[in-house]
Amino acid sequence: MIQVENEQIAGIPVLHISKSEDADKMLPTIIFYHGFTSQKELYLHYGYLLAQRGFRVVLPDAKLHGERLQGANPEDQATYFWDVIETNITEFPLITEELIKEGKADANRIGVGGVSMGAITSLGLLGQYNDIKVAVSLMGSAYYVDFAKELSKYALAQGLTFPYDVDERILALQKYDLTQNITKINNRPLLLWHGKKDDVVPFAYSEKLYQTLVEESLADNVEFIIDDNAKHKVSVEGMLHGVAFFEKFL
């Protein structure tokens, strides 16, 4: 039986999922991040499928989302989009360290994954933490600086105002931008899944990342799956590819 606990880890609201008979065992562990304006509960299907295969899965609520909404509206979430991602990145070790300390997570078998904003988070994490063994990006972008410039240009054209200096905020993203130091991938397994017709997170970012990794001879353990017809929605096949990738490498 699959056990789902709504709890807090390191003060962060999460759904904590595993087989009930393995709940207190040390398991390979996946932290899986939800998308923009979403919440952890809407990604339970990923947690269920992964837990079925013997993983411990943690679905956190991102800042200004789900249980942490704090009255934020979509405009607030858009204004602080990169703050949300940065908070995901800085909170990641708090979650994993607590699980490792409790003997529930295998420190040598930690994976990260996510959809859209969660995929962007996962690619940023891969560049920050060497203890991550596997990453799955479903419709993400590792090009933080380039994507931030594109998003801010669009937002300003739509009349959104920012209560901070946009150029300074973008400059601060460089340290999380995997493409600024691509060798940090260090031949770790990475799955990139993206729909060619994505009108939210451009497909070109995943394509460019994969091409760069190939050119730099860093793509031995990288798989790039293209869905020719998908827009900004992960297909069932894409979801199952992500699950199978974790099962193969973690």
TrEMBL record:
GO terms for biological process: proteolysis. The keyword Hydrolase applies. PANTHER family: DIENELACTONE HYDROLASE DOMAIN-CONTAINING PROTEIN-RELATED (PTHR22946), POLYKETIDE TRANSFERASE AF380 (PTHR22946:SF9). This is Peptidase S9 prolyl oligopeptidase catalytic domain-containing protein. The keyword Transferase does not apply. Residues 48-235 form the Peptidase S9 prolyl oligopeptidase catalytic domain. GO terms for molecular function: carboxylic ester hydrolase activity; serine-type peptidase activity. It holds the Pfam family Peptidase_S9. NCBIfam families: PRK10566.1. Keywords: Hydrolase. The lineage of its organism: Bacteria, Bacillati, Bacillota, Bacilli, Bacillales.
